[in-house]
Amino acid sequence: HMRNGNTNPVRQAREQAGLSQVQLAIRSHRSLSTIRNAEQGLATTQTLAAIAKALGVDIHSLRHIETPEAA
Fold first, then answer.
1. HEC readout, 50-66
2. What are the C-alpha distances in Å from 4 to residues 1, 8, 20, 21, 34?
3. How far is CA 53 from CA 1, 5, 17, 39, in A?
4. pLDDT per 10-residue tile (average), the chain, 71 residues
5. What does the DSSP 8-state code read for residue 4?
6. DSSP of 6-64, one letter per residue?
7. pTM for the structure as a whole
8. By three-state DSSP, how is residue 70 classified?
């Protein structure tokens, strides 16, 4: 389980792109449930690659997150 205050990197990247889960699902050619799973940390490499491409980010940024110390 995620600790409070830690945003999943997939969700963070999606929100930075200004997309809803539905919009990301369409752009990445994945189902909405797949996007929701990815935001819970459950995603295959292929799905992460598709999401990264849809968001225009590097796949590594979806695996590791840098959270600022000060919230």
1. HHHHHHCCCHHHHHCCC
2. 9, 11, 21, 21, 22
3. 26, 26, 12, 16
4. 67 96 98 96 94 95 62 42
5. T
6. ---HHHHHHHHHT--HHHHHHHHT--HHHHHHHHTT---HHHHHHHHHHHT--HHHHH-
7. 0.80
8. coil
